[in-house]
Amino acid sequence: MKLKGSEIIMECLLREGVDVMFGYPGGAILPTYDAMAKYDDRIHHVLVRHEQGASHMADGYARATGKVGVCIATSGPGATNLVTGLATAMMDSSAMVAITGQVPIPAIGSDAFQETDVTGVTLPITKHNYLVTDVNELAYTMKEAFHIARTGRPGPVLVDVPKDVQNAEIEFVYPEADIVLPGYHPPSAARTHEIDGALRLIAEAERPIILAGHGITMSGAMNELRELSERAQIPVALTLLGKGAMPEDHPLVIGMMGMHGEASSNLAIQEADLLIALGMRFDDRVTGNLKTYAVNARKIHVDIDRSELNKNVKADVGIAGDLKTVLTQLLPKLQQKSHPDWIRQIRDWLEDSSERDILNYETPGRLLTAQVINDIWRLTGGDAITVTDVGQHQMLEAQYYPHQRPATLLTSGGLGTMGFGFPAAIGAKFGKPDEEIWAIVGDGGFQMTLCELATAKQENINVNIAIINNNFLGMVRQWQELFFEKRYQATPMVNPDFCKLADAYDIPNRLVTRREEIEDAVQFARGIDGPTLIEFVVEKEEMVYPMVPAGADLHDMKRRPKPGEL
Amino acid sequence: MAEAKSENKVTVVALVENEPGVLNRIASMFRRRAFNIDSLTVGRTHRPHISRMTIRVVAGPEYAMKIAANLQKLVNVIDVRVLDNEPHIERDLALIKVRNDDADSRNTITEICDRYPARIVDVGPEVAIIEMVGTETILEQFIEEVRPTGIVEMIRTGVVSMGRGTRIHDTTFINRRQLLEAVEKARGGNGRIV
């Protein structure tokens, strides 16, 4: 069968099981858009309003489903607009394939119209990338791109296809053979001595703690984690992206760690004699000052990316491997253990935290973000997929919306990309059409990608948008309050009337200014099959506590204020 | 013999796919991980689809495994080996153009070259070119001896290294080109871009 390069791209997408792609047409990618028509019944194309939106949608789709998300854009500005989304996916190990058009091969290097060296630009923010210069290599390259994106430590892969390669016609033969890459062998199992080393440290530990990260959910090792925790009675602290690795109502789960983590988790880490770090990378937002981080603890570190071992924290036992495989090797030899004193100690810290909890405060006449988020949790039965933006609302979501299942909190952790939440929620809904999706966003981040309201309307996609509006760039303002003597430089925002904005897009909406109105508005949104928007006007100068200031010792937390101090 | 070198350098050897852009990927990794390259050499091996690099990085020995792991992470990097802790041969080559316009300098240069693995490869009325091959340390000693005579121009290749003994740092695999040829065959020949 003779096919054009553009059709080969579509054929390859079909064979990878792609059912939706997010993109924006333009000159250099037009041949592929033309070929799309023939495949419209099998691969749905979502027309975004800005390519950044396409990249976050593909990312959100990938995070929600565990499949590879696909976005497509034209050369030059189309491709450079993907950059933020690629970097976001890279930092959070999200499997994505981006396809970009490129000027025809003879024009490459001539500063042609809409020419950018996209493989050069995206080199440090993709797991791998390709410039396809021969249509004969196209199918194989596409297959390789998906293989690299989804295996090992997942990540974004970009395939740049010149226009003449899309137009060239060849006899199409799909490369059925498995991908052979001489330099790419993601680790899988641990060596016996590594497993034995880990078991010995676990057996010797009196105050062990598990640090569960994104790797648990990506590897599908939730059951193994739970068994490890229960059998050896080891409490589990979660990273932001590790939320959902174990149900948060489990008695051994002690909450999020790090800068805005629970005081009990951070104290437990500092007091522990063994850290079992599973699929997390000791980010600076998790460790605080490395010199004083868990100094009394030995460390077991399991990660699929060998370069993460000993990067920030030296491991006594470092295992490069797939978590499900490694834990499956370890569990049969794991002895039952109990640490009643240790567990009791952590429980005391926990109670101290919840006493100070904002939800127990009387706050007549004021609407607090934590209350909004906790009410959304209550009204959705704690079972929605929430997709957040970045900032105070993101941290408060992590604190006040407990997650029971993996991949139900989608958030930009590593890169901290404002503007991620809303488009990623749209992508997630395409991947999980039967799930209830809430985009919880701040007024600042939402305005970075709000053009996708038109996309949501055009697709009539059932995403509920909760805008937490404090007319401030809240987290930056918090830092200014704490560390810059309240000089609120460039953080107050004059915002549009978000409800009128929704009206303009013909999107049903509500305004909420008092706590009593939350339930009605949330139920209103849940009852509508299509996009909805709720603007929550919250306290202007709210703070997120606990907080470990950047670079401070992890135990040196600013605690939640006691009732009355608020 | 494990040859002497300064403490704060790490030497790694990498086998990489001989594909466009691979050098850029490697240089980019070193830059973004804030490793400082002291010298980098690259050339084809006896397998034309594999190139071999010797990379000297200004870093303490504690960084050796970090550097190796980050290199290995690149898709086009086939194999990486840190050479610092094992017996290996290293060579650096320099071409040094020196003043040669009086009998004194001519004599001095000839005398110095006799004591080193160096030879004069070009002689003119005013300048001569010396080719000197050796370890980095010996090369630097040599340069310091020649310097007073008057160095006009100099170029060095950077260090190339190879582990000694029978542990072979090489690999065979079906490369991309061969795979594509198989696909091509199945397709019945032709079909290049016109």
- Tell me the radius of gyration of chain A: 24 Å
Q: Largest sheet of chain B at a glance?
A: 5 strands, antiparallel
By helix and strand content of chain B, what is the structural category?
alpha+beta
Number of strands of chain A: 20
Topology-level CATH name of the domain at 89-156 in chain B: Alpha-Beta Plaits
The CA-CA distance between the termini of chain A, in Å, is: 71 Å
Strand order of the largest sheet of chain A: 3-2-4-5-7-6
Anisotropy-based shape of chain B? elongated
The portion of residues forming beta strands of chain B comes to 35-45%
Sheet bearing the most strands of chain A, described? 6 strands, parallel
Q: What is the CATH superfamily label of the domain at 89-156 in chain B?
A: ACT-like. Chain A, domain 2
**Mean model confidence by pLDDT of chain B:** 86
Question: What count of helical segments of chain B does DSSP give?
Answer: 5
CATH class of the largest domain in chain A: Alpha Beta
Topology of chain B as a string of helices (H) and strands (E): EHEEHEEHEEHEEH
Uncertain regions of chain B: pLDDT < 50 for 5+ in a row? 1-5, 189-194
Oligomer: heterodimer
* Full CATH superfamily name of the largest domain in chain A: Thiamin diphosphate (ThDP)-binding fold, Pyr/PP domains
Q: Compute the gyration radius of chain B: what is it?
A: 21 Å
- How much helicity do the residues of chain B have? 25-40%
